[in-house]
Design a protein that fits this description.
Blueprint lengths: L1 H22 L6 H25 L8 H25 L5 H25 L8 H27 L12 H21 L4 H19 L7 H23 L2 H24 L4 H6 L22 H9 L3 E6 L1 H6 L2 H13 L3 E6 L9 H9 L6 E3 H4 L8 E5 L8 H4 L18 E6 L19 E5 L2 H15 L2
Parallel strand pairs: 1-2, 1-4, 2-3, 4-5, 5-6
């Protein structure tokens, strides 16, 4: 009876994972989806405890000791996650996602390590091969995600590149595969197991170090897919249906998201991983004509107050300034003056998938004001004012016109087609792609220099004064 309950619990957990992921596809139902997935995880953990209780003491003499360690790990992990989750700022959310994603890959690698150290006769052949593959992918996801976290958190702030790096990385990966084959041929070789994990972790580090900041959203998504795949493979090794199904769902969703994000930048995944794009260095491009002009926050606010329509393009600069609440206050004032206000979101805006959506949701912006690029791009041509806040490459017309630009062909938000464009920016620096933004030199564009929070505060005050 207990065995049947455990199996049914695993299937129920997997169902809740799938349903939760489906609900997360819409911002309206995303919170409910997260709760469902969380309940599914609790059920899966309960099923694991049931399995532990089912094991005969003769087969697992250390079961009681293991139970204590599991409870201690759950208590420590739960306390740390609760504390960090409550304290994390929206600007630091990408780092947390990268770190937690790495922990998932690390957990899968740890399961593989335990299985490889204490091999049983029934774990040879295909079972051992699957375990090794899951451990390899999990190890790469762990170390790669940690480097992504360090880059996003500013702990690694320069490019780590050397001549022949791609070839060297390939050799490390081949070495990891060769060591995996050696473990298959000599299952009890502990040195081969240890070197296998060193090679897997080393490849994850070396693969991520040369990737530029502009590509970190895609990298995070890719490692999310890796973690899901690793978990599903180790679930097969443990004969755990909940892990297998959940891992496959996460892996397939992460893979699809990675492909969609690469497509949104009009680049292949190989180009993202191996082109060294987006390191913040200046990149050769066509000659820029025109001159940047600037205006004051009050003048820009007056223009928006008397406009009939405004489209706002949020970027990472808005997150850095923590100005989303002030921005929504401005939006409400404009709406009170009968101005039609919408938000336009580029698929790779911010530093992780959905970063800008999370930012706006935190400020309480209604979901029906937020539009994806393909749904709003045609509206810019009929819009009075486009307000760009801290965004750069995703509104650069060079992607349409300059064949010498590294972002040529990338779909962008058509902010330059609005009758008037205001860009809130701290300075004249380039974006992650390291190219000049032709939008800033347009005749219909004025820069509003300053921290987004301070500028928006002035705009709010100016609109209030105009309202009398």
């Amino acid at each position: 009876m207990l065995s049947l309950l455990i199996e049914l619990s695993g299937l129920l957990a997997a169902f809740l994972f799938i349903l939760g992921l489906k609900r997360m596809s819409s911002p309206v139902t995303a919170l409910h989806g997260i709760v469902l997935a969380g309940v599914g995880m609790l059920i899966a953990v309960g099923a694991a405890f049931g399995y532990l209780a089912q094991v005969q003491p003769s087969a697992q003499p250390h079961a009681l000791t293991n139970l204590g360690l599991v409870l201690l790990a759950l208590a420590l992990g739960g306390a740390l996650a609760w504390r960090s989750g409550r304290k994390v700022a929206v600007t630091d959310m990408p780092q947390m996602v990268a770190l937690y994603n790495g922990m998932g890959g690390g957990a899968a690698a740890a399961v593989g390590a335990v299985s490889l150290v204490a091999l049983q006769p029934q774990q040879m052949g295909l079972h051992l091969a699957v375990t090794l593959l899951g451990a390899l992918i999990g190890g790469v996801s762990l170390s790669g995600s940690i480097i992504a976290w360090a880059k996003l958190d500013g702990r690694i702030d320069k490019a780590w590149r050397f001549k022949g790096q791609s070839v060297f990385n390939g050799l490390i990966f081949v070495l990891a595969l060769a060591l995996a084959v050696l473990v298959l041929l000599q299952p009890g070789n502990s040195w081969a197991v240890a070197l296998f994990f060193v090679a897997a972790l080393g490849f994850g580090i070396l693969m991520t170090l040369p990737i530029g900041g502009a590509d970190m959203p895609v990298v995070i998504s890719l490692y999310n897919a890796f973690t899901g795949l690793a978990v599903s493979l180790e679930g097969f090794a443990l004969q755990n249906p909940a892990l297998m199904i959940a891992g496959m769902v996460v892996g397939s969703a992460g893979t699809l998201l990675t492909v969609l994000m690469a497509k949104a930048m009009n680049r292949s995944l190989a180009n993202v991983l191996f082109s060294n794009f987006g390191d913040g260095a200046a990149v050769a491009q066509g000659e820029v004509s025109g001159q940047m002009t600037s205006t004051t926050p009050s003048d820009a606010a007056a223009s928006m107050r008397y406009a009939s329509s405004v489209i706002i393009v949020p970027g990472y600069g808005l997150a850095v300034a923590q100005a989303q609440a002030r921005l929504y206050e401005l939006v409400k004032l404009l709406q009170a003056a009968d101005v039609d206000v919408k938000f336009a979101i580029h698929p790779v805006a911010g530093r992780m998938p959905g970063h800008m959506n999370v930012l706006l949701a935190e400020a309480g912006v209604p979901y029906d004001l937020i539009f994806d690029m393909e749904d709003i791009n045609d509206s810019f041509a009929n819009t009075d004012v486009a307000l760009v806040i801290g965004a750069n490459d995703v509104v650069n017309p060079a992607a349409r016109t300059d064949k010498a630009s590294p972002i040529y062909g990338m779909p962008i938000l058509n902010a330059d087609q609005a009758r008037q464009v205001y860009v809130i920016k701290r300075g004249q620096g380039k974006g992650y792609a390291g190219v000049e933004n032709l939008l800033f030199y347009g005749e219909n564009c004025d820069m509003v220099y300053g921290d987004a929070a301070a500028v928006l505060n002035e705009m709010v005050q100016s609109v209030k004064e105009l309202a009398g």
